[in-house]
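Complex 406.
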Amino acid sequence: MHLYLHIPFCASKCPYCGFYSVVRDGIGDYARLPAIEAQLRPADFPNAPNTIYFGGGTPSLLGPDGFEALVASLREDAGISLEEATEWTVELNPASTTPELLRAMRRAGVNRLSIGAQSLCDATLVRIGRIHDADAVRRGFSLARAEGFDDIGLDLIANLPGVSVHEWRETISDALRLKPVHISVYSLIIEEGTPFASAADKGTLGQRLDDDAEMDLLSETEDLLSSEGFVRYEISNYALPDRECRHNLGVWRGEDYTGLGPAASSRNGLVRRTNAPDLDGYRKALAKRTLPPAAELDTLTPDEDAKERFIYGLRTWEGVSPQEFAMRHPAAKPFVAEWENRLAVLSSLGLAEPFNPSTFQPFNLSTLQPFTPSPLQPFNSSTLTSRWRLTPRGFEVCDSVLTEFA
Ligand code: SF4
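Predicted structure with iron/sulfur cluster bound:
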């Protein structure tokens, strides 16, 4: 399983952001709360986590003491074996990155950093309400390298208002100069209820590319990053070989994950849970040693569960084989023929493609989940068709493509 920890604090709220966080200078007693939640959910920890991901919000607002306290309480209070995790990722905001914090993270076991730059143009950063400039991003990289981190990724947002194609190309060049091993490129989504949504309604947001031009921009971005050795291993994520984010890859491969903290989501077997985005409610419930309020708590049918996990797999460049998938998820068996037909239709439209996994080299296939056929479900590997994945064009229109399988 994979463990996600939500740190729901930000120094200020970015006007485009739809994630749950509250604006605070300090984190108070928060560092010890996720461990209490973990103690209340023993069934969500059937084994030690394979990966740990600290996201937010702004995890760097924990500071060195808060970070150490959080890790110590997960180990000591909740008894979670963190040592077995092969990847520890922290999302870093350049504005709150310090040598002391990086040192504390390194000591605790963090081996992967994801720096939230969003842009490397100072004027754009001001316009989108970020509280750091491009130099702070560069400084974040230098500080992290000085503390021994080499697995450093960068997050960027494409099609921000007022950013021309030429400026975006410069942002990509500037990003590559920092030599990250991972780059996430998200298109700006106007989230309901945000200041950006109000500005869009009033027509004051600033100029953005239309859908077709945005697709061209993302396609050009893929070409630029591919020429530097990056593989687009998921719709919005690029990595150099063997530098994929194992936590997110695990989630897309359909593995279970447990999220702790307000607004954190989990997938455990058939159960889907999302905690309410309510820090006070979270704190009060845990003070009484009761489970925090849930915004979503569903038990899926095995069919629904299989479909959801299949759709996640199609987000990745390693793709999915419907037949192999049905061996691991027997509830998917009735859908195999239908899925293969749909994939063939998508292939005729240039949106999906079959490929032979034995000739597939883009990234480390040895990290694919081992597949062991059950003795109760004998299968003959010669009957397996190839895996399927979306083409780059399919990635661009994934929202409509993936609903074909829902
Ligand atoms: S984008 Fe990140 S830093 Fe900005 S408000 Fe959202 S979570 Fe906080």
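The chain has 15 helices and 16 strands.
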